[in-house]
Description:
Blueprint: E1 2-3, H1 17-25, H2 37-48, H3 50-63, H4 67-94, H5 101-151, H6 164-181, H7 186-214, H8 221-226, H9 239-253, H10 259-262, H11 287-314, H12 320-324, H13 334-347, H14 351-383, H15 391-394, H16 404-418, H17 425-432, H18 437-451, E2 463-464, H19 469-486, H20 503-520
Antiparallel strand pairs: 1-2
Helix pairs in contact: 2-7, 2-11, 2-14, 3-9, 4-9, 4-11, 4-18, 4-19, 5-6, 5-14, 5-16, 5-18, 5-20, 6-14, 6-16, 7-11, 7-14, 13-14, 14-16, 18-19
Main location: membrane
Subcellular location: Membrane
Keywords: Amino-acid transport, Membrane, Transmembrane, Transmembrane helix, Transport
Amino acid sequence: MTWNKSPADGGGGGDDTGLARLRELGYKQELKRDLSVLSNFAFSFSIISVLTGITTLYSTGLRFGGPATMTFGWFVAGAFTMAVGLSMAEICSSFPTSGGLYYWSARLAGKRWAPFASWITGWFNIVGQWAVTTSVDYSLAQLIQVIILLGTGGNNGGGYLASKYVVIAFHAAILLSHAVINSLPITWLSFFGQFAAAWNMLGVFVLMIAVPTVATERASAEFVFTHFNTDNEAGIHSNLYIFVLGLLMSQYTLTGYDASAHMLGSSSFVAHDRRAPRTQTEETKNADKNGPIGIISAIGISIVVGWGYILGITFAVKDIPYLLSADNDAGGYAIAEVFYLAFKSRYGSGVGGIVCLGIVAVAVYFCGMSSVTSNSRMAYAFSRDGAMPFSSVWHKVNKQEVPINAVWLSALVALCMALPSLGSQVAFQAMVSIATIGLYISYALPILFRVTLARKYFAPGPFNLGRYGVLVGWVAVLWVATITVLFSLPVAYPVTKDTLNYTPVAVGGLFFLVLSSWVLRARHWFKGPVTNLDG
């Protein structure tokens, strides 16, 4: 791993090397350049949000393998995720543009394959991002449901359990607030992003220390590090199979770090509307250096902090079957029950546990906010080349240089993607499964092109992996291929319409739609990224 001096540096330490590099690529800036490396990191760290991912899928980790799968599986997923992140960071340093993965694929696939490569990568990325926002904000709505349930007496004390219609209303209200916040100037988003990163960091330390300390009964170190739970009530008995399914918690959590690439904020696409603003600004300063730092640091810090959170909470776990039972006070929401019981056992009241859930809820809220930010930048960039229906609408920016229409589009799509939950949770799970697999496929595609088609002519930026770039790239691609297969396996036997894993259906359906639209229409007019520099 090396840092090279950018050709744009020229000895002038005060120059924005990312801006110069972008002009070398043939593009000018249109989004406001106000994000520092800390702000860029903050957006990715807030979207990864270990409090969000681990809290949401802690029940899955307990059910499939339990403590051993969570404590050691976290590092398995973390190590391979870092390989993906390092490869993305290397490409990001070479091509610091807000189109991110979409643009990278076009440049790395070569002139012949550029349009198709950018088309398929862009659609998998943007739909995957919308699915992430959907799953994050809907998870927050469910967490609010549990907080209200516990606050009004719990499942066994006559507490109020909000209906699925109330939950979807919570989801809509959360999305509305996120759209409003994302309509503010980028300086405000920078502040919220840094506050969110600080909240996530402090929140993890507070919870990982407070919960096991307050609990009157704590698990032994042997239980936390070696206990492997095979009692999953899913008809799955193979230890390897159980471990693989338990990895979903870790891999779902460690997603979204491509936000650092989208917040580079360059306008890497042709301006179809000549009235659009043409300012020489960008959202991340020195993007060819700070973008890679944002990606790598967000993953690395999340791995360390997330493991601490898993350990702290798991030391307060005693009775796994009870925590997963729908008859407990939290209605089967395992981590909420852990918090609630820890405080109730010592103080006779679970109010402290509810406060802890409130800390998590705030973190999840900011995760959703940052996710909408990333969504809108990708929608803005992708629509600049006419890749989306009504593209001329979505690529407009307002006087504050915010892609306002793309912001509200992202919120609306995330609301629509949650509506299937009213009919069936199975249908909803099929929708949000794209959040992990679909997003990682979009991560892997430009890396695949970098280690194959572009292997001989790839020009590294200031950050590069040197001679290990191709090796790390292949590790990343093979890992994504592996989890795509593993997370498509059945999660319960016998397989019925109610237990079928609809992930391959959802992801396969997306691929079919994207490929069909290309063959039938897009291949005739879509040319991929085009320079927006006059002359």
